[in-house]
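Q: Give me a protein?
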Amino acid sequence: MSSHDRRVRRLRRAATNAVALAAGSTLALAGTATADTGGRAGTGAGPGSPVTSAPLVQGLYQSAYSERNDVLWATAAVGQPPAPLTGSQLLRIDPGTLEVEAAYTPPVTGTVEAVYGIDVDDEHGTVWVTNTRSDSVAVYSQKTGKHLATRRDVDHAREIVVDEKHDTVWASAFGDGTLVAYDSRTFEETGRVTVEGAGPTGLALNERTGTVYASDYTHSRIMEVTRGSRTPRLIPTGEGPLSIALSADGRTAYTADQTAGTLSVVDLRGGRVVTSVSTGAGAKSVAADPCSGRVLVVNRLAGTVSVVDPRAGTVVATVTTEAYPNHVEVGDGGTAYVVDKSGSGPAGEDTITRIRPGAGDSARHGKAGPRRGC
């Protein structure tokens, strides 16, 4: 079953579960799970807590949720430029207990192929990552964690997104304004789209049409590339967009505008910003919940996650995280996972924060976390 079909199934059940955060509320961490130096979560606040955090490892960057396997994958790399890399890990995490089930070390080809951006391909059982400092992307097995392939010549590879329906993977090359496409079955490159002077960062995909969208951080716009086209349409958005997400119907784009500290709501058909919502300093990552229609924005410098009602153009809740939240991923039932760069763990680990939309009924949860669908 493709990711598009699974999302349709979710949306049909959307009325059964909406985000249960009160309008205008502010939630601090309800509890923090203890962990050993290996990133193994302890009892913490318990399964019913709406907001729970746990230390994992140093250098957390992004995460991606596998619906087929009920697994959260995360990337970690230690050593910010110009400092040398000292290590990197691809983590397999239980989304319910927040325990690290396995950690895989990337290969070394002159230097460590440190992992940063990430997405999963449930159709083919793989994990795709960007190796930003190696100017490449790589593929791993979801089942074994084995490194399957590396593809080079992706200048400052930043993010990656999988189109399961069309067997395509897209990566953003921030360094030369390029979006690179791959065949998700053969791992071979199938095309490039370049906009001179652009700085593409975040990626989002219309799973029905195969159209890919990139936030152009350099020129405060969106790059829209329809399937089969090599000529992108350029759409204005807020100042300094670093991340992008789409509404469930694919008609609206949301950008986290790092420079402005805002969420921009963009009408894609009309090609214009219809609403700008102030969220917090350093808005860095955005994800849309297809169940409730709410949008979550990570505010890195503010240390918060804003829950936004895009129709009303208002922040309906603010969740306080550890310092420097870096990325948000929405999984089953609207459960969100936020990784940070706080170094607040007992051994200096960064942490993960789970935000549940309707906690309290742990009996409904699957293997370890939220139940399937909406």
The first strand starts at residue 25 and ends at 27. The mean pLDDT is 87.
